[in-house]
Amino acid sequence: EVQLLESGGGLVQPGGSLRLSCAASGFTFSDYAMSWVRQAPGKGLEWVSTISGSGGSTYYADSVKGRFTISRDNSKNTLYLQMNSLRAEDTAIYYCANLGAQPPLYFDYWGQGTLVTVSS
Amino acid sequence: QSALTQPPSASGTPGQRVTISCSGSSSNIGSHTVNWYQQLPGTAPKLLIYSNNQRPSGVPDRFSGSKSGTSASLAISGLQSEDEGDYYCAAWDDSLNVWVFGGGTKLTVL
Fold first, then answer.
1. CB-based contact A105 B101, cutoff 8 Å
2. pLDDT single digits (tens) B31-63
């Protein structure tokens, strides 16, 4: 059974940093691209970032480029999102999702999410 | 403003058939497959339809997807109260080099 478990969310002041983690199990982690998708309170889904299975390729939404860094540790089956220079508009539930091993790609499995609140 | 356009709301009575549209452009739906996600109240999104019209194992055949040109649709037949929630379409966008989602459609079962 595929499981994705996010952690690391919390309350942080504007300008602060936070690192999210996503522990994966139930599939060959290194074979799959992984993504972060967020959802602001009462709003829709917004793709944040994607990393390839090897970690060699990364992609970011313009809204987070230069501030967030996606990474993975395939030996620990864990995905990360380092978030710096946080802004109020980054407040959201952050979900990690398994993107798939080969095209056509889609967000297959999702974690339960972790809430990030940016406020003074 | 989302790159994919969905109606904000849809509704139907139990047993009815409802459809939710998703309109895009040549750089997203026109060039790539469309996926649909269901988000029930207080839960994480769940894959409902992938590659335009494929259902993951465990998804009832009441749910179906289609695509034509730069638009896609999700159809739900035999509507049930437990179908109430939000539905999102998504596709890769070549010109933006990002994954784009529709704004979501809130489905109400009357």
1. no
2. 999 999 999 999 999 999 999 999 999 999 999
DSSP three-state, residue A20: strand
The whole-angstrom separation of Cα A52 and Cα A59 is 9
Determine the residue among B43, B99, B105, B106 to mutate to test chain A binding: the one whose Cβ has the most chain A Cβ atoms within 10 Å.
B99
For residue A90, which phi and psi values (nearest 5 degrees)? -85, -5
pLDDT more than 70, % of chain B: 100
CB of B1 less than 8 A from some CB of A: no
CB B76 within 8 A of CB B91: no
* Residue B2 clears pLDDT 80, i.e. is over it: no
Residue B69, SS3? coil
Residue A114: both structure tokens together: 């972790």
Other CB atoms within 10 A of residue B58 CB: 7
Chain B contact for A47 (CB, 8 A cutoff): yes
CA B22 to chain A, closest CA, distance in angstroms equals: 14
Please indicate if any CB of chain B lies within 8 Å of the CB of A41: no
Residue A60: closest C-alpha in chain B? B98
Q: What is the pLDDT of residues A98-114, one digit of tens each?
A: 987 778 889 999 999 99
The mean pLDDT of B81-109, rounded to a whole number, is 96
Task: Please give the structure tokens belonging to residue A83.
Answer: 């978030």
Record: contact A112-B44, CB cut-off 8 A:
yes
- Calpha distance A89→A65 (Å, rounded): 14
Asked whether the beta carbons of residue A59 and residue B51 sit closer than 8 angstroms, the reply is no
